[in-house]
Amino acid sequence: MHTLPKGSINSMGLPNEGLDYYLDFVLQDQANRPGTTNFLSVAGTSLEDNLSMLHQIQDSAYTGFVELNLSCPNVPGHPQVGYDFDRVKTVLTAVFDFYTKPLGVKLPPYFDLVHFDQIADILNQFPLTFVNSINSIGNGLVIDLMPKKL
Ligand SMILES: Cc1cc2nc3c(=O)[nH]c(=O)nc-3n(C[C@H](O)[C@H](O)[C@H](O)COP(=O)(O)O)c2cc1C
Asked: Domain of 102?
């Protein structure tokens, strides 16, 4: 990640402490601040990983929002799920087979009008509570027009 005068550019997933840590955090927060809610964002490295985390959340006392991140670009050799429409449907079918708490998805940016229609058509088939768009635009480039003289 690099900070810039008007923002930042990054090529990283936010390092984090893992689900156990943050589930414990939101459960404590839920107890300490009744009436408020949290967004717990999860991104697994495989479908099994995502389902396992969502089972853990489903079986917990957490009642807040969960964001399933379909825009996780960090698995070498695989496109992010959000760019594989058949896979999105497979993932959401498996998730809503058992998950009943408020759940939304985080999407990558789309650039073609046909893709807007295709992803909307799939998302509308599921009882999503929210849709979070968008993750950072990929393949960004920052050019310093006034480089320092060497
Ligand atoms: C250093 C850094 C790390 C990020 N890591 C993640 C991440 O692990 N997962 C994710 O979904 N988004 C990640 N993002 C994206 C943000 O969550 C957010 O969606 C994005 O920055 C908003 O779009 P914008 O950068 O175009 O304003 C990261 C952003 C930054 C700056």
From this structure: 37-132
